[in-house]
Amino acid sequence: MVLNQASLKRDGVQDYVSLRATAVILTLYTLFILGFFLVTPEVTYDVWKSLFSSLLMKAFTLLALVCIAVHTKIGLWQVLTDYVKNAALRGVLQFLLYTLAFGYVAVGLFVLWGV
């Protein structure tokens, strides 16, 4: 059997792997931030600013933002497909919620990189 690996279509396996991978990255990011709060005696603006001035931290935060968007997109598609039977309403809800997720990433990008 020949498989087309260049296809842009999603399938269940890709969604499954994407959800699990994004969940792992988001868990690592959450644990890092929790660890930062636990080991830092006093979190001030200067401490917080110095944490996020690192290029590695900016990249990790950007990765977490993109993972939130991917995780949200797949999760919303699954939930809306299961519970909203009207195709027109489901399309409108998907558009609005995907736009909100994109806006979240865009605002995070502007705040993070100070654009």
What do you see in this structure?
This protein has 115 residues and is an all-alpha fold. It is built from four helices and no strands. It has one domain (12-113): Fumarate reductase/succinate dehydrogenase, transmembrane subunit (3 helical TM bundles of succinate and fumarate reductases, Up-down Bundle), CATH 1.20.1300. Helix 1 packs across helix 3 and helix 3 runs antiparallel to helix 4. The model has no long low-confidence stretch (mean pLDDT 89).
Rg computed from alpha carbons, rounded to a whole number of angstroms:
18 Å
> How many helical elements?
4
Give the beta-strand count: 0
CATH topology-level name? 3 helical TM bundles of succinate and fumarate reductases
How much beta, percentage-wise? under 5%
SSE sequence, one letter per element: HHHH
Overall mean pLDDT: 89
What does the overall shape look like?
elongated
Counting helices, strands and paired strands, the structural category is: mainly alpha
CATH architecture annotation name: Up-down Bundle
Q: Report how far the terminal alpha carbons are from each other.
A: 49 Å
- In which range does the helix fraction lie? over 70%
CATH secondary-structure class: Mainly Alpha
CATH superfamily: Fumarate reductase/succinate dehydrogenase, transmembrane subunit
- Give the count of structural domains: 1
Low-confidence stretches: none
Major sheet characteristics: none
